Amino acid sequence: MFSSVIHQLRSMLSTATTDSKPKVLILNSPDKAPSEYVAQLKEMVEFHSIEQGSHDVVTGRIAEAVKEKGPFVAYVVFINWWSRPFPWPMDQALVGPLVETGCKMISSGGAGYDFVDIKYMSANGVYYANTPEMPALRTADSTAMMILQALRGSSQREADARAGRWFDPATPLAKDARCSTLGIVGMGKIGKFVSQHMQHFGMKVIYHNRNRLPPDEENGAEYVDFETLILRSDVISLHCPLTESTRHLLNKEVFDRMKKDMIIVNTSRGAVIDEDALVEALESRKVLRAALDVYEFEPKIHPGLIASKHTTILPHCAVANETFERDQQTELLLNLETFIKTGKPINAVNDV
């Protein structure tokens, strides 16, 4: 996937002009991206770097950088994923000094952008660009793993083994993927990969999306409305963005209408699920098991989810493997390069 991205970046950089260098503010440095491309990009733009910190700290650093080194045409965020806190939300308080002095493109990693004030940026002629290619297959791989873990109850079986309980007969047996229907909420890049993965394991796949996909993109999945999805699914996997319409999409009323012994998997955003309602559904056994990588108030995890023996919980790491930082930074550089060359980043999520 990223060989084509790197090839495109190489071609664009090789034709760059260095007659004038627009200034670009970056948070941290692209230390994982291919060094040759970073070096060539530096021939095109003048980078000024600030370091990661809390929202308030980065707000101050941006304002100071604009005053001393600006104006900047773009702001690119190379998040250090292992150093918290992250400088979110991406709001007027944070980026206002950039926007007010002519910044026209902001880019940060990840497919989701619920932390970004898109309305503010669009109203001020600023593109926001994400990195949707990098997380797609990685998140889908992790989701498939989590679906299989939940179907087989592997977390509880592992706990039994660690405690010396050899195949505790009180533990529910694994559910058979070949007898189960997977309902996917949100059939974007990640949802499509998950559908393909799980059909290999014999699952029937139904999906709900804001709009039905063209038939040639469904690849064996059946489009249904949301109500049909929650009534027919044995497993529901969430891949929708967090918006006002999807916040607490799965709530007590929805859980009440589902089948008994449901399985819930979430690698999208935590607040798509009402966690209090999920804990209640797990305790009542309406939901048999849940596998979660994201949480409503992360990094805090609902104590009921931690205490439950029917949950598989991961620390928002579905995308994390040995190459994700390299590929994410390369995609961010491609956003910057296409913006410099064409006036619009390749992964713009808004129109201006």
Low-confidence spans: pLDDT under 50, at least 5 residues?
Answer: 12-18
Count of DSSP H/I helices = 14
Distance between the termini: 28 Å
Would you list the SSEs in sequence order as H and E?
HEHEHEHEHEHHEHEHEHEHEHEHEH
Average pLDDT rating: 93
Portion of residues within helices: 40-55%
The rounded Rg comes to 22 Å
User: Could you say which structural class the secondary elements and strand pairing correspond to?
Assistant: alpha/beta
GO molecular function, one term: glyoxylate reductase (NADPH) activity
Domain D-isomer specific 2-hydroxyacid dehydrogenase catalytic: 76-350
InterPro entries: D-isomer_2-hydroxyacid_DH, D-isomer_2_OHA_DH_cat_dom, D-isomer_DH_CS, D-isomer_DH_CS1, D-isomer_DH_NAD-bd, NAD(P)-bd_dom_sf
Pfam families: 2-Hacid_dh (PF00389), 2-Hacid_dh_C (PF02826)
Task: Quickly list its features.
2 domains; 352 residues; Rossmann fold; D-isomer_DH_NAD-bd; seven-stranded parallel β-sheet; NAD; 41% helix; alpha/beta; five-stranded parallel β-sheet; 14 helices
Structure description:
- With 352 residues, this protein is α/β, with parallel strands linked by helices.
- It folds into two domains: 2-110 and 323-342, Rossmann fold, CATH 3.40.50; 135-313, Rossmann fold (3-Layer(aba) Sandwich), CATH 3.40.50.
- It contains 14 helices and twelve strands.
- It has a seven-stranded parallel beta sheet with strand order 8-7-6-9-10-11-12, sandwiched between helices. It has a five-stranded parallel beta sheet with strand order 2-1-3-4-5, sandwiched between helices.
